[in-house]
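WARN no homologs supplied; continuing
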Amino acid sequence: MCNTYLTMVSLLLIGVAAWGKWFGLLSSIRVTAGVIGVGVFLFMVAVVGLCGALKHHQVLLFFYMITLFMVFVVQFLVSCVCLSLNKDQQDQLLEIGWNHSLATQRDVEKTLGCCGFSHVDYNSTCAANCFHQKPPQSCYTCSNTIQAYAGNILRFVGGVGLFFSFTEILGVWLTHRYRNTKDPHSNPGAFL
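OK structure emitted
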């Protein structure tokens, strides 16, 4: 059950990141490579779990169980952080991300049709269509536009991550139980 879940999630991560990069939805190669890397890692963990379960291999099952537990801890912590961020903390993190990359600023301005993060500077450049219209005073700041979606997205991601983190701890428990069962392919007198 958990291997099927991990395989589907890993293939989904790889496919969505590649699709987003192919169609130009993602501009950062680092983000794309990171998401694909996480997808490949989860796929390899699922393959290790599957091989360990098919061969009833104690070492592979132990490695799978420990790795799945570490993924659970990270996913649980990230989900809790997503659910606990208040509006001021969200604004602070968004501004740090905004100031980190000029390419991201231009992509966000062009996609969302906004200019600047906290104020519109009409003496600088902006990639939004509203900035090039006459008069350019019709542009909104990007912080307001992004913040309208950020809270809902963080709650959704946190809730989904929290739900699936508990399926991972169930996978750890089932793997532990399966490791302690008798191997049907081994000597009937042997315990493991």
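Residues 71 and 168 are 8 Å apart (CA to CA).
OK
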